[in-house]
Amino acid sequence: MLATSYTPEEYNQLPDQPGVYKYYNAENTLIYVGKAKSLRKRVASYFVKSAGLNAKTRRMVREVKKIEFTIVDSEFDALLLENNLIKKTQPRYNILLKDDKTYPYLLLTKEHFPRIFPTRRVIPSRGSYYGPFASVKAMNNILDLIRSIFTIRTCKLDLHPRKIAEQKYKVCLEYHIGNCLGPCEALIGEPEYLKDIEQAKHILKGNLGIPKSFFKTKMQEAAENLQFEMAQRYKEKLDLLEKYQAKSLVTSPTVSNLDVVALVSDEKHAYVNYLRIKNGAIILTKTVELKKKLDEPDSEILLTALVRLRDQFQSESKDTISNIEVEFENENLTITVPKIGDKKRLVELSLKNALYYKKEKALAAGDVKDKKDRILRQLQADLSLKDLPDHIECFDNSNIQGTHPVASMVCFLNGKPANKEYRHYHIKTVEGPNDFASMTEVVGRRYKRLMDEKKPLPKLIVIDGGKGQLSSSVEALKQLGIYGKIPIIGIAKRLEEIYFPDDPFPLHIDKKSESLRLLQRIRDEAHRFAITFHRDVRSKNAFGTQLTTIKGIGQETADKLLKHFKSYKKIGEATLEEIIEVVGKSKAEKIIEAIKEKSG
């Protein structure tokens, strides 16, 4: 039954039955959808005792000009209908899940020699869909497991028996490397192929026990028939299943199929974590954020989120456990709060996920800057710095037995890497493997340039190394007359010790400290940047050496060829015309002739 003409003053004419009610404003816009065990009593609570409502709800009630309702058979049906209506219409005063993702499925196609592959588009006529999966990683784990155990084709060929009989296809590389059994050339029959598909279906449904039992039986049969190689193959498949199941097992197998949901909230938002358990294993996990609209109680928010998540991920479990008491019980859905045992531990795990998500959202929503400032203030306190170190520069050297010595400088502004300010240095004045002298050179070059260009100096200099490298860097600052104006420290990697100039005793910052982690991150970034540069220089020099030994070919020509062809090998594979386009005919002919002599 659907009524469309009731006004707020006529609420007492609504039926005393379960259903869904809808509020419209003066513009005939749907502004709220609600469920009720008794439509009359629930709607009356808005208009009879409006003084007891919070400010947000009173504002909504003042907007209501028309009420529609739909009668259903039970409170559970009302809950499902409410969910569908909210999802479809998204009224402004209803709680909405802040999640508009299209989740991936695994599709088992409806065709000869079926395939299994991921998709985000659901077209029922194409086959059977399994999912949706809350993450691509979770989906790929199952897909990789299936492809490791079963040999299921991945090609898109139409393997109709008539086309196979006409020999329209030839086996591809997948067959030759053992990833396909060659159905396109009738090397396997469809009935035999479908046996693997049947077992794969059980894995897609989360019923790992059935394929495990199947492979165990096959293994035993093969062993009894002295087919030991075949028995070993079945054992390997069984091991893969058990290994996969062991990764997901979090509680006793006696905990059968159920949903777990936990909620934490603040004044404006609620965060709900949802776990689906099947045969004692977590097969799905998802955390969502809900924005409160009418200061709804946590129990109502949890129930709303639970129904939507169950609908979204197609759960058919009748049992749900939670951290919040919800006055709702139906033969199709029972919600309880466990007090002891494995179920209580599952709820605690779910709650931990919700709390972590809440923390991450708070940081992402605007507390990130506060976090950066907090870390920098902590670093300032740990190092007894006069100013906040919002501009940090770090140096590192890289050489192998003195060959191709280079250095790097990375810059962090407000605790974040400023990639445009990174610098590479070729060591110019030092002969041989001398890290100390190299550090003096690059630190001096960096800050002489900043001073000449009248650019701001950093608030902290970090040297990757111990007392020796630090002393060498201090010498460079003294030569420039700025020692004492910029704080400088060295960080030794072995024990993560912090060294100060003229202090024989290192500082040990708490290993769990955020400030030490920032220093480590800066030091590691400088090291990565130096190593990458050194590797590039070695490759370039090795490449150049091979070419510059050719008479008439200099470093400039070698550099041009490196930029164009990327490797010496690719030059050897290039045609004369291709090399002429880069360096001209005369040099190209010399290069081709030299390469032929070396290879011939």
Automatic annotation (TrEMBL):
<dbReference type="InterPro" id="IPR047296">
    <property type="entry name" value="GIY-YIG_UvrC_Cho"/>
</dbReference>
<dbReference type="GO" id="GO:0009432">
    <property type="term" value="P:SOS response"/>
</dbReference>
<feature type="domain" description="GIY-YIG">
    <location>
        <begin position="16"/>
        <end position="95"/>
    </location>
</feature>
<comment type="function">
    <text>The UvrABC repair system catalyzes the recognition and processing of DNA lesions. UvrC both incises the 5' and 3' sides of the lesion. The N-terminal half is responsible for the 3' incision and the C-terminal half is responsible for the 5' incision.</text>
</comment>
<keyword id="KW-0227">DNA damage</keyword>
<dbReference type="InterPro" id="IPR010994">
    <property type="entry name" value="RuvA_2-like"/>
</dbReference>
<dbReference type="Pfam" id="PF08459">
    <property type="entry name" value="UvrC_RNaseH_dom"/>
</dbReference>
<dbReference type="InterPro" id="IPR001162">
    <property type="entry name" value="UvrC_RNase_H_dom"/>
</dbReference>
<dbReference type="InterPro" id="IPR004791">
    <property type="entry name" value="UvrC"/>
</dbReference>
<dbReference type="GO" id="GO:0006289">
    <property type="term" value="P:nucleotide-excision repair"/>
</dbReference>
<comment type="subunit">
    <text>Interacts with UvrB in an incision complex.</text>
</comment>
<comment type="similarity">
    <text>Belongs to the UvrC family.</text>
</comment>
<dbReference type="InterPro" id="IPR038476">
    <property type="entry name" value="UvrC_RNase_H_dom_sf"/>
</dbReference>
<keyword id="KW-0267">Excision nuclease</keyword>
<dbReference type="Pfam" id="PF14520">
    <property type="entry name" value="HHH_5"/>
</dbReference>
<dbReference type="GO" id="GO:0003677">
    <property type="term" value="F:DNA binding"/>
</dbReference>
<dbReference type="Pfam" id="PF22920">
    <property type="entry name" value="UvrC_RNaseH"/>
</dbReference>
<feature type="domain" description="UvrC family homology region profile">
    <location>
        <begin position="264"/>
        <end position="477"/>
    </location>
</feature>
<dbReference type="GO" id="GO:0009381">
    <property type="term" value="F:excinuclease ABC activity"/>
</dbReference>
<protein>
    <recommendedName>
        <fullName>UvrABC system protein C</fullName>
    </recommendedName>
</protein>
<dbReference type="GO" id="GO:0009380">
    <property type="term" value="C:excinuclease repair complex"/>
</dbReference>
<dbReference type="GO" id="GO:0005737">
    <property type="term" value="C:cytoplasm"/>
</dbReference>
<dbReference type="InterPro" id="IPR036876">
    <property type="entry name" value="UVR_dom_sf"/>
</dbReference>
<dbReference type="InterPro" id="IPR035901">
    <property type="entry name" value="GIY-YIG_endonuc_sf"/>
</dbReference>
<keyword id="KW-0228">DNA excision</keyword>
<dbReference type="InterPro" id="IPR050066">
    <property type="entry name" value="UvrABC_protein_C"/>
</dbReference>
<dbReference type="InterPro" id="IPR000305">
    <property type="entry name" value="GIY-YIG_endonuc"/>
</dbReference>
<dbReference type="Pfam" id="PF01541">
    <property type="entry name" value="GIY-YIG"/>
</dbReference>
<keyword id="KW-0234">DNA repair</keyword>
<keyword id="KW-0742">SOS response</keyword>
<keyword id="KW-0963">Cytoplasm</keyword>
